[in-house]
Amino acid sequence: MSPSEKLVILFGGADREQTVLRLHRQPAVEVAGVIVPQEQHGRLRASIKRLTDAGLPLTAVHGKKDLAAKLQPFAGIILLSIGFPYLIAPSDLDRFKLCLNLHPSLLPDYRGPTSTALMLKNNESVTGATVHVMDAGMDTGPIVLQHKIKLTRFDTVRSVLNKTYAVEPDLMLAALRRINTPGFQPQPQPETGKGCLTRRRTPADSEIDPGKPLLQLFDSIRACDPQNYPAHFYVEGQTVCIKLWRPDRPEEDDPQSL
Hints:
Blueprint lengths: L4 E7 L5 H8 L4 E9 L4 H12 L4 E4 L5 H5 L6 E5 L7 H4 L4 E6 L11 H7 L4 E8 L9 E8 L6 H23 L34 H9 L8 E5 L2 E5 L16
């Protein structure tokens, strides 16, 4: 990367603050500001507190209409988005030297905000993380760098995210070095991709059909976060939830796996 790379970060990714903190500690990187959404749930609130405690300059944005004004002072530097809940208007993207997004899948597969649940439901054996250039679409811009991650049949939403977030800091630093390599050009995404959900998951997405065989439902159940959107069905109008676990799970497995 250049001797002093200046960034403004759009941050809305619960449990993903390690990438921001890693960048903040780099001598060759200056994090000029971190913009966060005003509305924050518990996990995101905890991540943002860790950024505040590290001395990072944070600004809260009050909805999408407020974003353009909050971005204006940072025009001309690199914009990085990590789990930010709003698409950025092309007119705002044009203000910056470069606009990057860190997405938790191997694009073009599994674009959108609920990619992890969908890939588990489809019983994927590989996922990853992607740094790509932002454009007017949702996770559609040219790819800078990717990292592959193996999945097991016992991975859950939380264990997949643990694996993915663990590789993001190194991937982001490598991507910043790559974009400063003479002659480097991001690669356009292939036209073919699988699994795209352009809306956020709702509790209704975790309803399962109890008439299907259990083995047929296994991937759908493990794709449901037992805390935020548990797998469920109804008996006499009452919600019945399902949780899976392995009593003999190997010690080396992620504690958040089944």
